[in-house]
């Protein structure tokens, strides 16, 4: 974790005087200490190959966000908004903790769906119209998160 | 770079439109959970497009890095804050609005 | 164009403030304040470009983090309050069965 923080400091500071580098080293040490005390030692399964698969997922989620944001904006401006909120659990079994967080956050990040609660093997989702919930259940996003987690071979 | 300028203007205009729509939705939607959706548009589409539009007109790479960091932080904290809020509200028993209910 | 984006952000911030004033209930208010905060981050970033002062972006980063921590902290506090109240109520109920547990908070 420490190299990441050090890189972050150098990127944001951009100065290489002794004083600032020492201050940076102290900050990195302090943050690592605090993170350890808070029980955040492991990197939760993030790795270099994982990071390499990330851009493709980000492009896809960006497209999804734009498409569904347009749909929600239509509802905002329509004279009588077509709102039929639905709440249901969608399956999310057999995922690492990181994948579960990615999935739940992606659901919330996409306008129109909102994750309310994350269980061991499912996510409770609130959606503006039932169609969004059905699209989620069809599993396109779930498949992509699985692929992000395990690579193409295991992701099917 | 006229192309970059035009692309930047288009992204900024679209982002501004999404942001205002989210604000209007926050006032118009009937209950707490639907309002979280409205606030979510401004967090994801609005913030992303505006920051991308600014990224296309950065004078130096240091500014670009800072814009990317802001984008990353907003993309991570926005949905997390929404989830924490919705989770707390549901645990506290805030009822879910169904079609035909009065506004609240 | 930059000025138009700033105007849009200001309008949205006013709308969020209106929702924060109207409520109803604590969750609507926290939601509105959270949105006000993220729009402030964007506003600071855009203002940096308008005035040609990219240093503003550092303030934006800081504001984004502080805003998130503040929202989570407020929620944790209200819930610790509730948990504490519940625990105390349980203890009281054990000790003196005739004291009903009261919960004066306005629910959303």
From TrEMBL, chain B:
<keyword id="KW-0812">Transmembrane</keyword>
<keyword id="KW-0472">Membrane</keyword>
<keyword id="KW-1133">Transmembrane helix</keyword>
<feature type="transmembrane region" description="Helical">
    <location>
        <begin position="36"/>
        <end position="56"/>
    </location>
</feature>
<dbReference type="InterPro" id="IPR005133">
    <property type="entry name" value="PhaG_MnhG_YufB"/>
</dbReference>
<dbReference type="Pfam" id="PF03334">
    <property type="entry name" value="PhaG_MnhG_YufB"/>
</dbReference>
<feature type="transmembrane region" description="Helical">
    <location>
        <begin position="6"/>
        <end position="29"/>
    </location>
</feature>
<comment type="similarity">
    <text>Belongs to the CPA3 antiporters (TC 2.A.63) subunit G family.</text>
</comment>
<feature type="transmembrane region" description="Helical">
    <location>
        <begin position="68"/>
        <end position="89"/>
    </location>
</feature>
<protein>
    <submittedName>
        <fullName>Monovalent cation/H(+) antiporter subunit G</fullName>
    </submittedName>
</protein>
From TrEMBL, chain C:
<keyword id="KW-0813">Transport</keyword>
<feature type="transmembrane region" description="Helical">
    <location>
        <begin position="59"/>
        <end position="78"/>
    </location>
</feature>
<keyword id="KW-0812">Transmembrane</keyword>
<keyword id="KW-1003">Cell membrane</keyword>
<feature type="transmembrane region" description="Helical">
    <location>
        <begin position="30"/>
        <end position="52"/>
    </location>
</feature>
<dbReference type="InterPro" id="IPR007208">
    <property type="entry name" value="MrpF/PhaF-like"/>
</dbReference>
<dbReference type="Pfam" id="PF04066">
    <property type="entry name" value="MrpF_PhaF"/>
</dbReference>
<protein>
    <recommendedName>
        <fullName>PH regulation protein F</fullName>
    </recommendedName>
</protein>
<keyword id="KW-0472">Membrane</keyword>
<keyword id="KW-1133">Transmembrane helix</keyword>
<comment type="similarity">
    <text>Belongs to the CPA3 antiporters (TC 2.A.63) subunit F family.</text>
</comment>
């Amino acid at each position: 974790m420490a190299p990441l923080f050090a890189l972050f400091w150098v990127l944001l500071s951009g100065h290489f005087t002794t004083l600032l580098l020492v201050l940076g080293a102290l900050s990195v040490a302090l943050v690592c200490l605090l993170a350890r005390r808070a029980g955040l030692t492991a990197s939760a399964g993030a790795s270099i190959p994982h990071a390499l698969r990330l851009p493709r997922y980000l492009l896809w989620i960006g497209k999804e966000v734009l498409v569904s944001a347009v749909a929600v904006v239509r509802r905002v401006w329509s004279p009588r908004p077509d709102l039929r909120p639905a709440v249901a659990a969608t399956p999310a079994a057999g995922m690492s903790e990181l994948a579960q967080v990615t999935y739940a956050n992606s659901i919330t990040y996409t306008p129109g769906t909102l994750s309310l609660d994350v269980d061991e093997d499912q996510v409770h989702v609130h959606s503006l119209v039932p169609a969004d919930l059905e699209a989620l259940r069809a599993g396109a996003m779930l498949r992509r998160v699985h692929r992000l987690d395990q690579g193409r071979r295991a992701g099917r | 770079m006229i192309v970059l300028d035009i692309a930047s203007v288009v992204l900024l205009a679209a982002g501004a439109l999404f942001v205002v729509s989210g604000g209007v939705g926050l006032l118009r939607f009937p209950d707490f959970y639907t309002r979280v959706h409205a606030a979510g548009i401004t967090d994801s589409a609005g913030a992303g497009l505006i920051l991308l539009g600014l990224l296309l007109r950065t004078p130096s790479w240091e500014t670009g890095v800072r814009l990317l960091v802001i984008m990353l932080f907003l993309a991570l904290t926005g949905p997390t804050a929404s989830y924490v809020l919705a989770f707390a509200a549901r645990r506290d028993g805030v009822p879910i609005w169904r079609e035909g209910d009065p506004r609240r | 164009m930059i000025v138009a984006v700033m105007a849009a952000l200001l309008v949205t911030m006013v709308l969020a403030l209106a929702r924060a004033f109207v409520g109803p209930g604590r969750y609507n208010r926290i939601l509105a304040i959270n949105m006000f905060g993220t729009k402030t981050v964007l506003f600071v970033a855009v203002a940096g470009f308008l005035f040609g002062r990219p240093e503003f972006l550092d303030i934006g980063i800081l504001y984004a983090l502080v805003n998130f921590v503040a929202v989570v902290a407020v929620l944790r506090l209200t819930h610790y309050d509730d948990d504490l109240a519940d625990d105390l109520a349980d203890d009281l109920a054990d000790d003196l069965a005739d004291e009903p547990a009261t919960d004066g908070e306005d629910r959303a």
